[in-house]
């Protein structure tokens, strides 16, 4: 690369250009060439004789359609715009913002009037940073380093901080202020409303909507005169509401409802200082996709502890917005653009041959096409029925604006100079039950919109700056209870796309969190559509499905806990596939909910018209209701022969459980007044921990299914314990029957007790566990609800349950729970659909295949027991020996024992694979599903041929 031989020192450069009064056009090229000589860099002509990557007067069409030129351009480095001395450098910067896409989005945008230099960073996902210095300061080492980096190493000027880190710091400052207001007893809604207004002011002044840093200057004044803080801020807010003058600054009218209610909270000097420090941050660079969540946490005392926790970032939200909202719009734009390019080519051809009438027709045709598509974008309506702080709506708006900008830029490049952005925030619709969250959503969406407009060089409407967002409604999304006597389904506004993150509230917590009256209404209104056991988010899925089926919406993309794939929750996905189809899903993804790690599923669905489907980011032919793309196991039916065997254990509903030493005291007590021992009502008790870890020597007081209070009281010590410890708890229970029958367990499972009666032992497995492990339990034991029990005492049955065939089936048919994503076993969908080699109760007597399974099962059990309880082991050693530890380690002897068991089970099914461990899960599922469907469609006397499915 040739460099100029003539070199200027910085001092010579300063001396020469200090007295120059030439106009911009007469001086800028020589100024830049002198700059190259001073820095020892080649000039554009020396470096690039053809002007392909480094040149003066780089042609670039503005987004407005007007032709333009960047004064200097270097690909991958910078674009540079000059202005005459003392001219408006911000106007020059706005020009570059309109050029930047046409200039391949350079990382640095430079403006200069010969006396001043401003280098604006333009790196992705970083806050904007501006390096400023004057001609007189040019010879300072740090300023020369900045100029050299423009040519040689632009990455050196990348801001060290990210947009996310700036946003987190901004939220942290507000959290300190919110906490101070709470400690002073400021009413929470007043504080929240005031701080949302302050948030908007800080943003507005940093993007130039409030002139000359008027709010920051007000704060600096208030640090000296804290007594005038409230009246001065009230004066500013009133001017922002109506338009007016504050001091010598003209304030535009913002309107939009944000300042309709003005109730300024007086601040202490310390609080004013905190706010003044916050004002120094770069509020123009905050990320609207996360500031709403963080701000909401800072203002809600119940959620403030989550401030340091992770949040849902923009990239995560885009996984919903892109496939659900943007894919069909981009597909439509591709069609429009292809036609537009044909018209533009015909227009150029007409111009070349001098046919101006044909050229004019083509221009009109192109304008009609592009303006028509822009009209389509401006008519798009997007709904978030549980909008929270508005992050999903903001990301959707930003994506929609980005696509509109592509259209505007294409039109500008092809001679249409009248195209201006038309996509606006009022195309977004939201439902929210929290008044503060609704207000925050409105502010965040407007901040995001104004940020996009200013960052992309478009003018913002000035009178008023904001418009009211009545599209964000304060409304319950599920129930309309305006008539208490006749609750009905809530009405959603029409929308093309429904997106969002509905509340993750488990079915078992509905009454606790929402109250009996609301839940009773919910069950009544959605009867037959959503199972009563389903999580709350399932109601949003059903509502969105119904909107699509009724033609009131086109597509939806919603989040749910990953348990939506199974159990009662899956019913809503099955209904979606009946009236439409699932076209996009992420079946099991890590997520953050209220600062806590959870596992979620993302589901996109429509009326069935979408032909392309993707599961976990990969194309698939179909997506089943359990969010798989292979064997549709959801077709499996519950088998009558499996009924009455598997049960959920007892739900106690209070501290009925007691440690072993107390139980033994009760058992050793004299006979009670009824002449009975306490052993009638004091039993060994196990829950999931006793299975996966070690027995804890826990017992339980159990008065059975329906023992009257008078009889229970005759067992003196157990009854006194329950009266002292359980009664106070049960008196607070929401259910009247639980309060009235306080001495009995809330769900004693009479069916389970009857099935286990007469057995010497039974099988148990932890309902939720990392490994699907089965154990033998003594008949005296009462299993807790965290145990699934099987009313069988034979080794054969134990062996089939512990086989790989049953494990594969259970993992697919069950659901998953918690951040650890442990599988959950259910007695209905998991067990009652599982086809045993023979229907339970119909196993052939003396069949060697049955005995082979039983023998392998006995051996597995004995080996495990010897490992768990070796002779001479210390207490510390025994504590470390648990079944979870064993199955985590999987020693060779355990693998071999399971292999022997699996070979025996394979033989019973008639499967001839040499090694069951090598058979893939899909093959196993296909065989079991075929057997399930054969059983479900056959009579109780199923023939051998129907019993055994094909082996391949």
Automatic annotation (TrEMBL):
<dbReference type="Pfam" id="PF20473">
    <property type="entry name" value="MmeI_Mtase"/>
</dbReference>
<dbReference type="InterPro" id="IPR046816">
    <property type="entry name" value="MmeI_Mtase"/>
</dbReference>
<protein>
    <recommendedName>
        <fullName>site-specific DNA-methyltransferase (adenine-specific)</fullName>
        <ecNumber>2.1.1.72</ecNumber>
    </recommendedName>
</protein>
<feature type="domain" description="MmeI-like DNA-methyltransferase">
    <location>
        <begin position="367"/>
        <end position="611"/>
    </location>
</feature>
<dbReference type="Pfam" id="PF20465">
    <property type="entry name" value="MmeI_hel"/>
</dbReference>
<dbReference type="InterPro" id="IPR050953">
    <property type="entry name" value="N4_N6_ade-DNA_methylase"/>
</dbReference>
<dbReference type="InterPro" id="IPR046817">
    <property type="entry name" value="MmeI_N"/>
</dbReference>
<dbReference type="GO" id="GO:0003676">
    <property type="term" value="F:nucleic acid binding"/>
</dbReference>
<keyword id="KW-0808">Transferase</keyword>
<feature type="domain" description="MmeI-like helicase spacer">
    <location>
        <begin position="189"/>
        <end position="259"/>
    </location>
</feature>
<dbReference type="InterPro" id="IPR046819">
    <property type="entry name" value="MmeI_hel"/>
</dbReference>
<feature type="domain" description="MmeI-like N-terminal">
    <location>
        <begin position="11"/>
        <end position="183"/>
    </location>
</feature>
<keyword id="KW-0489">Methyltransferase</keyword>
<dbReference type="GO" id="GO:0032259">
    <property type="term" value="P:methylation"/>
</dbReference>
<dbReference type="Pfam" id="PF20464">
    <property type="entry name" value="MmeI_N"/>
</dbReference>
<dbReference type="InterPro" id="IPR002052">
    <property type="entry name" value="DNA_methylase_N6_adenine_CS"/>
</dbReference>
<dbReference type="InterPro" id="IPR029063">
    <property type="entry name" value="SAM-dependent_MTases_sf"/>
</dbReference>
<dbReference type="GO" id="GO:0009007">
    <property type="term" value="F:site-specific DNA-methyltransferase (adenine-specific) activity"/>
</dbReference>
